[in-house]
Amino acid sequence: NAGVMQNPRHLVRRRGQEARLRCSPMKGHSHVYWYRQLPEEGLKFMVYLQKENIIDESGMPKERFSAEFPKEGPSILRIQQVVRGDSAAYFCASSPPVNRGAEQYFGPGTRLTVT
Amino acid sequence: AQSVTQLDSQVPVFEEAPVELRCNYSSSVSVYLFWYVQYPNQGLQLLLKYLSGSTLVKGINGFEAEFNKSQTSFHLRKPSVHISDTAEYFCAVSVRAQKLVFGQGTRLTINP
User: Fold this and answer.
1) How far are the Cα atoms of B39, B43, B44, B64 from residue A57, in angstroms, in the given order?
2) In angstroms, what separates the C-alpha of B81 from chain A's closest C-alpha?
3) Which member of A93, A108, B32, B84 has the lowest number of beta carbons within 10 Å of its beta carbon?
4) Strand B10-14 versus strand B56-58 pairing type
5) Are the Cβ atoms of B49 and A48 closer than 8 angstroms?
6) What is the pLDDT of residue A36?
């Protein structure tokens, strides 16, 4: 049973370019969460999605960031016109539709470097 | 809103010594509590969690934690650490099994 998959694992973008980060949840999981880890900091919640719905985007920056989780395919976190401050590790987590255990399963992360 | 404070950013200990990593939280509603471990350049792995019931929770790799409601704490302990326990440890809370709110992390370094 494959875990949460994220790709790419490493992504280098120049300032002003777009970054697309993909997350495939565990089999049977329909809830996806995105977190950002800045250097020397803990993880900060960004957005919580279910299939075709954004449930909570209270942690998303107001501009340049967007997320989707379509009916088919992976969840995508999109960052437009990247800046140096976007350099961070971005983690995706997933959970099942009925999450009695309250646990989230994390992927290995995508490390974004903006040059 | 919820917040989590991990009182030590770094904890160095000798191999086979006991260790305690401290975590305090703030919330006006009931929360679920978690400890995650992050090895270098990897994702997070759940060590243990408290949802309800017994306040002493046992997890993987010999770790345990105790929930103290009056002190709003959830400290992580291990009686004897190994070199392989070197990692970053994160305490986190959630309300109704939704988003996780993390502490800053504690870097545990094991010296031989």
Assistant:
1) 28, 22, 21, 33
2) 23
3) B84
4) unpaired
5) no
6) 97
- How close, in Å, is residue A43 to chain B by CA atoms? 6
C-beta atoms surrounding B79 within 10 Å: 11
Q: Do B97 and A108 touch (CB under 8 A)?
A: no
Which residue in the set B32, B90, B105 is minimally distant from A102, CB to CB? Answer: B32
Which one of B8, B88, B98, B101 makes the best mutation probe of the A interface by having the most chain A beta carbons within 10 Å?
B98
Chain segment B52-93, per-residue pLDDT in tens: 888 999 999 999 999 999 999 999 999 999 999 999 999 999
DSSP string of chain B, one letter each residue: --EEEES-SEEEEETT--EEE-EEEE-SS--EEEEEEE-TTS-EEEEEEE-SS-SEEE-GGG-EEEEETTTTEEEEEESS--GGG-EEEEEEEESTT--EEE---EEEEEE-
Contact with chain A for residue B40, Cβ under 8 A? no
What percent of chain B shows pLDDT beyond 70? 100
B51/A101 Cβ within 8 A: yes
Residue B40 confidence (pLDDT): 86
